[in-house]
Task: structure prediction
Amino acid sequence: MTPGDTIGRNVRRIRESRSMSANELARRVHVRVNTIQQIEKGKTQKSKHLPDIARILEVALSDIDPSQSSNQPGRALPKRELVGDRDLPVYGTTEGGDGIQVMSSEPVDKADRPPSLTFVRDAYGVIVTGDSMTPALRPGDIAVVHPHIQPRREDLCVFRSNNHGEFRSTVKEFVSFVKEGWRVKRYKPEEKEFTLKKSDWDECHVVVTIHRR
Result:
């Protein structure tokens, strides 16, 4: 068995133990799904994405690649070491119809702040309602948002609008920028691409991690 085979089997075993699809892992690592598939098939001996994969799967890098000593700098830390201050504001939502959610004007809870958002101003979380983005996001999950980075294809994003003091939001997969605003994709009730007009949706914020219910 080659090192690539060992790494691939470990990634797949741990991913499946988390009940996570290859598509979801790819989306959260910000790579294409065929990148994950190539790693899991053992066709990639080494990959620069392994530390991010370990972080998303909440294991040490050495759990995926045994050649990596557990005391190496830059290793992916277990979840218990990744938890930051519980100071991330979380906003509640209610169904507003047609995949739209109405956000609470004030935070309803606090969540653990991921290390990637340690110094990020205005980062926040949104409690998901509706199932238009299942299985990537399920009702009750908290979508944790970085409000200051540009979206990339296949990123999950929270789109927001302020209608006379009432914040509306919707979570969709970003496809591309278009003249009118953003091309996005939903997963249910059937997979569909459509455009969110910037005149209707003021902001696009990238989901960087998900707190499962």
Q: What stands out?
A: The domain at 88-211 is CATH 2.10.109.10 (Umud Fragment, subunit A). Residues 70-83 have pLDDT under 50 and may be disordered. Residues 24 and 58 are 14 Å apart (CA to CA).
